[in-house]
Amino acid sequence: MLGGQGERGSIVTENQQTREPVKVFLVDDHALFRAGVRTELDSITDDVRVVGEAGSVAEAVAGIARTKPQVVLLDVHMPDGGGAEVLRRVRPELPDVVFLALSVSDAAEDVIAVIRAGARGYVTKTISSKELVRAVVRVSDGDAVFSPRLAGFVLDAFADRPGSAPISDPDLDLLTPRERDVLRLLARGYAYKEIASELFISVKTVETHVSSVLRKTQLSNRYELSRWASDRRLV
User: Fold this and answer.
1) Mean of the per-residue pLDDT values for the chain?
2) 4-aspartylphosphate (modified residue): where (predicted)?
3) How far apart are CA 90 and CA 59, in angstroms?
């Protein structure tokens, strides 16, 4: 998750160094994560300037309207509606604001849903600080930016090719966003304690989510869940 602090300065290419800093607004329901991103970006570069942050959809809508950022770094899953809801409410009023999804999720359906809602790019939270700065500057200049393996999901979905990533799945639709997050990490072999640490929740909450997923999918153990998740390209 976001690393690579170094000497402060410009990270973008030389012909961009005279530009004004890109104004960035952070949207994520984890305050510690927002604080970490803000601290790292402020410490390593003059290319971007964080002008505000929010931890919920309502706070994000109000904060973006107030600060008028150029780029919004947007979490996909939040308790009160998530990134797609922020996009739905902000874009009609502020069409010039660019959205870049920054999420722990790298599931095809999450990537496709937020791009269809209007985001200009999608990167995962494993991205380094310097790479994130470059991504912010690029989307502010009109480019589309994706973490490498995610670009294929978008190409498949919008090309509508055989074998493309599904836009929706009735079985997946039964799961809440948090249950999908837990399932994805479980299928990758994470222990309950590791899942809890990654998602900033308790081990007991992880156990509750796993039990709910097993019930909804009518499966009996984590090995069957792993196969089920792999078949749906969650892993």
Assistant:
1) 82
2) 75
3) 12
**Model pTM?**
0.63
- 49, 22 Cβ separation under 8 angstroms: yes
H or E stretch at 177? helix 177-187
Q: What is the pLDDT of residues 191-219, one digit of tens each?
A: 999 999 988 899 999 999 999 999 988 88
Rounded to whole angstroms, the Cα distance separating 137 from 73 reads 12
Q: Are strands 71-74 and 22-27 parallel, antiparallel or unpaired?
A: parallel
User: Which tokens belong to 126?
Assistant: 């494993």
How many residues are recorded in the chain?
235
103 to each of 15, 181, 185, 218, how far by Cα in Å? 30, 11, 14, 28
Which domains, from first to last, does the chain contain? 22-156 (3.40.50.2300), 170-232 (1.10.10.10)
Q: What share of the chain is helix, strand, coil (3-state, %, to 5)?
A: 50, 15, 35
For residue 229, what pLDDT band results from cuts at 50, 70 and 90?
A: confident
Q: How far apart are CA 205 and CA 62, in angstroms?
A: 31
Please give the pLDDT value at position 152: 65
